[in-house]
Automatic annotation (TrEMBL):
Record lineage: Bacteria, Bacillati, Bacillota, Bacilli, Lactobacillales
EC number: 2.4.-.-
Pfam families: Glycos_transf_2
Record's keyword terms, sorted: Glycosyltransferase, Membrane, Transferase, Transmembrane, Transmembrane helix
Gene3D superfamilies assigned to the protein according to its UniProt record, in alphabetical order: Spore Coat Polysaccharide Biosynthesis Protein SpsA, Chain A (3.90.550.10)
Glycosyltransferase 2-like domain: residues covered: 14-180
Protein name per the record: Glycosyltransferase family 2 protein
Entry keyword annotation includes Metal-binding: no
GO molecular function: glycosyltransferase activity
Amino acid sequence: MCKKLKMVNEKFLSVVVPCYNEQETIPIFFETMEKINVQIPDYTIDYFFVDDGSKDDSLNEMRKLNAAHPDRVHYLTFSRNFGKESALLAGLQAADGELVAVMDVDLQDPPELILTMLEGIQKEGHDCVAARRVSRDGEPPIRSFFARLFYRLINKISETPIVDGARDFRLMTRQVVDAILDVQEYNRFSKGIFGWVGFDTKYIEYKNVERVAGDTSWSFWQLLRYSLDGIVSFSEFPLSIASWVGIISFIFSFIFLIIIVIRAAVHGDPTPGWPSMVSIFLMIGGLQLFCLGIVGKYVGNIYLETKNRPRYIIKEKK
Ligand code: UDP
Ligand code: MG
């Protein structure tokens, strides 16, 4: 890119910003970040906006910023909505700064934290500094409840640590970014990948901030699906549920069998009641289908991995 024409000693802090229908927030985000830029003496911020197939004027907002700052504002746009994970990947692949930050465009990731993060990397020598929100004010209680439950569950059943409340918002050294890009899987769950690559990560805590404008693009069901994808990507535990349920029901049925045989021998009465029989059949059938569903989910993921389709398609890039 045109970087080679720049001053020899100029160091870049690239900010990767996935955007989906964010026409209102893009200009506000840029303005706020520019104020941060002047407070950082050692680095110049350059931007990598990723338009994830927005249906509003987001792309034009990006074009405008690029026209005004062609060497610092880059953007790429997808041929359709591929989801935030794909947008993050495309942004990280495009970003070429020595340090790279990932940020939401809605200012829910407080930009001033970049300064603290930079200090964490420059002065304290961490490889990555990530933001972790400690409160969920402003979020529907039911969503917070399920979010907490998800973190508790996944940390029990996965070997990869996934920190409760940790956002994608983080500043990373080039080494960490390259490690993340080396993870080639199709079903990407960034929260897990960040933890999986390791490195010395510091978490800074902050209180939840609401969006400056626009609406969240995640529905409850989308979040639920996302959490299940996370579990399937980072834990094989669900696959063992079938074996455990099988062993437990085998032990119980064996005990029952002995009881029935003894009862028939002592009292000579055949065990009555086909309704109880039907209930047991239904229960076992249900459990079998449930376990089959879990296996199916993993098989589905293998199917997607082996098809090896591109994770996004770029329509325009600047
Ligand atoms: N986003 C995206 N593609 C999508 C959905 C969201 O790139 O399909 C972006 C969105 O523009 C924002 C970030 O991902 O910059 C977080 O989205 P949002 O604010 O809707 O999620 P929340 O903060 O509610 O988790
Ligand atoms: Mg948001």
